[in-house]
Amino acid sequence: MIRLLRTAAVIAANGCAKSTLYALIAQGLWTKPVKLSKHASAWPDYESDALNAARIAGKSKEEIRALVKELHAARTADREVNQ
To answer: Which fold has domain 4-81?
Structure first.
């Protein structure tokens, strides 16, 4: 079962400030949130888990950027399959 994590939960899980989370997104080091509504966004829990595991494992910024691209591509592929 996929859980969607709101911003506060992602921040708590990776131990950074909200501004740092959005800086990571801008740098391609964290996935973009999924829009739930006009005013609500969230991240799939498995993306947060994968990115935190990569950081813990000491992956380079380039390796993490590649992981972010893979996770975004998987979202697109899942969306196409479910249409």
So the answer is: Multidrug-efflux Transporter Regulator; Chain: A; Domain 2 (1.10.1660)
